[in-house]
Amino acid sequence: MTDPTPALSARRPSRRLGRQGLVQLLLLALLLALPVAADLTGHPYYVTLASRLTLIAMAAVGLNLALGYGGMISFGHAAYFGLGGYVAGIGAFHAFDMTPFLGGIPGSDNLLVLWPIAMLACGLLALAIGAVSLRTSGVYFIMITLAFAQMVYYFANSWPTYGGQDGLPIYLRNQLPGLDTQEPLTFFLICFVGLVLAMALTSRLMGSRFGAALTMARLNDTRLATAGISPTPIRLVAFVISAMITGLAGALYADLNGFVSPSMLSWHLSGELMVIVILGGVGRLYGPLVGAALFIGMETLLGGLTEYWQLFLGLTLLGVVLFARQGVMGWLAGREPHA
Amino acid sequence: MSATLLLEQLINGLQLGTMLFLMASGLTLVFGVMGLINLAHGAFYMVGAYLTAAVTAASGSFLLGLAAGLSGAAAVGAVVELVVIRRLYHRPHLDQVLATFALILIFSEGTRWLFGSSPLWLNTPEWLAGHVPLPGGARYPLYRLVIIGVGIAVAVGLWWLITRTRLGMRVRAGESDREMIGALGIDISRLYTAVFALGAGLAGLAGALVGALQSVQVGMGEPVLILAFVVIVIGGIGSIKGALLGAVLVGVVDTLGRVFLPLAFRAVLPPAEATDVGAALASMLIYILMAVILAFKPRGLFAAHD
Amino acid sequence: MPEAVLALEGLHKRFGALAATDDVSLTLRPGEIHALIGPNGAGKSTLIAQIAGSLRPDAGRVLLGGVDVTGESVAARARRGLGRSFQVSSLAEPLPAIRNVMIAVQALAGHSFRFWKPVARDPRLVEPAMAALERMGLGHRAATPVAELSHGERRALEVACALALRPRVLLLDEPMAGLGPEGSAHLTELLERLKAEVPILLIEHDMEAVFRLAERISVLVAGRIIAHGDGDTIRRDPQVRDAYLGD
């Protein structure tokens, strides 16, 4: 038998891989270098902006796993982003207040406690929502994920203990042992590590057996079932992991802003996360980062010029969808090598 | 719990259901005939409300305003279909979602640009401002009853249109067999523009009618749009009958839940907590209803389509 | 007589007033090719869907290796050893040929909830997939995306995917469709060699291939099996000549 390995790697022309790899490395280096430079020159605002960009990108990395790699068009990922945020907020609230949560659980401001709880909570919510939504497909799936996220939104709005529609402040950023999380650059670096880990996890996942099954579920689920693998459990697990990544980003986001409110659960945010994934390039590892950079860039630049910057966001998005479906990563890095 | 309160809330629920039906019927028609998911449907609702408020304020005539809202929304719908939507029919749902999400941003910000951020107000015209006595001694606002009447008229009109007219025959042909109607030489693109404009007009009518009950503001169409999604998911996407049933179900369950759940919890909890828990649960009620229906019927009650 | 590896017992399926499958029973024995033929609209697709598990019969049973699988999903039946190919090829177009085969090997090699080890260099997936490709003469096309394969290569790839499952039964739905005479002859040879290993239920329009390959033939017309037997019996059956071969 011939050795299949050279034949397989022949599908990844080294020129393209090289170009894509170079672009990716450059992007990460930029994301790391700019806030460090801003911190050194005494512009903490830009450090915070970079943290925001990083977390939005991380939330979109989560969505990309479901939407880009799994082909599940979730229009409700704000639910996990917001729930993650509320876990951070509620933990801090009870730690600050010294009151127990649900009558017995003490609050905590330790991020090593809050992060796993945020991810667990989001995973469970996604398991419930996914189990119902994945019974359907196509347009039904889009509308149902949207509707369930809206349910969580209204619940947060009408539940007064944690501020209802006014939201919940986090007076002191939650703590990580041995680090000063109040320091903007330190907090940025935490976010940066989170983003890189999320991307590394996605990459590893998609190269694994699970990733192969998920890819086949997206491209041709009849083929997957005929091969003896049921598509729905594969999709459900991907959906749950996707929600957990987005939820962790949300927990960090609440700490970054010192505030969590129902707006983190709003359907607008779900839509924006989708827009970011698309702008960057669907199903590409670095697409969410590029999309987030574009989104935050437009918001900062256009938002400084006009109050109506979202009008231009809408026009840009319309243009991209109608005429440039490969997204910006497609333009920067060439066609995706299918491995 | 008195019978009068129950009756009053039932009519309130019916009125909400009417609005939802006006929204949902357009959405479900557009999906059924063209296979398009349109997030920007709420924008036509907003356009209808703004046009009605502006024209009523300028002319002093609510009826003129209403006509402007309905026809204006339909005209805007036709233009949007010609410029953007028809490029999306053969695209994947993801593209449709994104492009119509982009339309929401454009419409919302465009309206804010034109009319400013503060809401407009539209009063119920005097000749509709009265009350009607209900059995049991309560009085019910005439205007809300008129809205229900309009909804019933639209439902009958749609039924007539779809089952008795040539346009309706084409629509039904489109639902069952798109190739066939192309083969028959029916001008499919004109049909699609007409159906889209009809849906937009109905959404505009809903916005115009509600404008006199609430403030007219940017983003007013979005909560209604999402409720309309719940309605058509429950009813079965593509089915007008399903939209009608789903709309009434959602309207009544939502309205009754908001009133009676807090009351019900008072039986087991202290009043303040009962109100909180009841209100929070009531806000989730229709979504739970949707989940339960989907658990048994993943394609909705009257699925017309795959 | 050896026990049937696949048995259909009194399958019924109605769509409204139409009886798409009307009391169909048949068996597939080890080492044989059993061909199912019938004119268009005879209900072959509906029957295949019930065997594969994408459609539930209204009545009757499907037995795989003596086990009743009537209530089982497509994936569960595949794990029990039912390999199938599709009339219209059902492959992941953007992926290389070998990836389409590897997914079948993967199912055989245990569950798919393995999140870490890369598949691209996993010999337990790559080697059996390569072997299946080579049996179908596709070894040199392993890395080519399906979208770039010829029609004939796709048909062969379909069979390779089914083979990679190491099936106990092969269900081939018009594998010759669209192949030229040369392609048909080539595939016929391949199937002839294959049948000693895996019994095949063959749904096929190409009569030459059917009469050459099949030990037994069943003729489906309007949802019913109107004739059953070896090639000569079928050729001589007046009902078949009337309903099918005569036209």
Automatic annotation (TrEMBL), chain A:
The lineage of its organism: Bacteria, Pseudomonadati, Pseudomonadota, Gammaproteobacteria, Oceanospirillales. It is a multi-pass membrane protein. Signal peptide: none annotated. Keywords: Cell membrane, Membrane, Transmembrane, Transmembrane helix. Its main location: membrane. One of its GO terms (cellular component) is plasma membrane. Pfam families: BPD_transp_2 (PF02653). This is Branched-chain amino acid transport system permease protein. PANTHER family: ABC TRANSPORTER ATP-BINDING PROTEIN, HIGH-AFFINITY BRANCHED-CHAIN AMINO ACID TRANSPORT SYSTEM PERMEASE. It is found in: Cell inner membrane. The chain crosses the membrane at residues 48-67, 79-96, 111-132, 139-156, 185-206, 233-253, 273-296, 308-333. One of its GO terms (molecular function) is branched-chain amino acid transmembrane transporter activity. The keyword Transmembrane helix applies.
TrEMBL record, chain B:
Belongs to the binding-protein-dependent transport system permease family. LivHM subfamily. The lineage of its organism: Bacteria, Pseudomonadati, Pseudomonadota, Gammaproteobacteria, Oceanospirillales. This is Branched-chain amino acid transport system permease protein. InterPro entries: ABC_transp_permease (IPR001851), BCAA_transport_permease (IPR052157). It is a multi-pass membrane protein. GO terms for molecular function: transmembrane transporter activity. It is found in: Cell inner membrane. It comes from Halomonas shengliensis. One of its GO terms (biological process) is amino acid transport. The chain crosses the membrane at residues 20-41, 61-85, 97-115, 142-162, 191-213, 219-237, 244-265, 277-296. Signal peptide: none annotated. Its main location: membrane. Pfam families: BPD_transp_2 (PF02653). One of its GO terms (cellular component) is plasma membrane. Keywords: Amino-acid transport, Cell membrane, Membrane, Transmembrane, Transmembrane helix, Transport.
TrEMBL record, chain C:
GO terms for molecular function: ATP binding; ATP hydrolysis activity. Pfam families: ABC_tran (PF00005), BCA_ABC_TP_C (PF12399). The keyword Transmembrane helix does not apply. PROSITE patterns: ABC_TRANSPORTER_1 (PS00211), ABC_TRANSPORTER_2 (PS50893). One of its GO terms (cellular component) is plasma membrane. InterPro entries: AAA+_ATPase, ABC_AA/LPS_Transport, ABC_transporter-like_ATP-bd, ABC_transporter-like_CS, BCA_ABC_TP_C, P-loop_NTPase. Residues 6-247 form the ABC transporter domain. This is Branched-chain amino acid transport system ATP-binding protein. It comes from Halomonas shengliensis.
